[in-house]
Amino acid sequence: MPFTDYFAAPFEPEHDAFERLMKKYEPKILKIVSQNAHMYGNYLYSPSDRDDLLQIARYAFWEANEKFDITKVDTEKNPENVFIAFASRTMNGRLSDYLRKHYKNASREAYSSTDDAYDIPDESPEPQRVQMLRLLEDHLPYLSPRETQYLNLTLFGDWDTKQIAEAAQVSEHTVRSWKKSLRKKLAPLKEELMTKGSRKS
To answer: pTM of the predicted model, to two decimals?
Structure first.
């Protein structure tokens, strides 16, 4: 059962209990984000990168709450202390996975730019993530919160359908429906990019 079943006050809705739990441990969440960001500081280009880390950490905290099994806690230990240790491991794991992939992508881009030093220079020196956000900027207002969440987690967090379904507490079928809707809404962007590509060639 979720840890909030233990943490909640009598008759307190689960959502309210979770919000209260997250607020209580927000300083710890921020500290974990800061520690992970510090290790990969050279590859985080803007404040929005750190915002992504905070979002990932908060999802991981929610995931830890859902997966926590209080029946496995030793009777001599404080359940809340055990939960926070478990949540911290979950957050560190998610952030580490994301940052390693982020680091690999950044390193690959840096290598490519060095390798092409005597070739045609790149017209856009911006990081790839910033370029993607710039392309999507005009289309984001038309996306639902769920579609935006899906886009962010798949594009920048490299989450798969199962992970998103577990974090959002929905079925994988529902997540796939977000993907389908997202493709329809971003179809004009795809056509725009194809048109630009044909003009350059």
So the answer is: 0.53
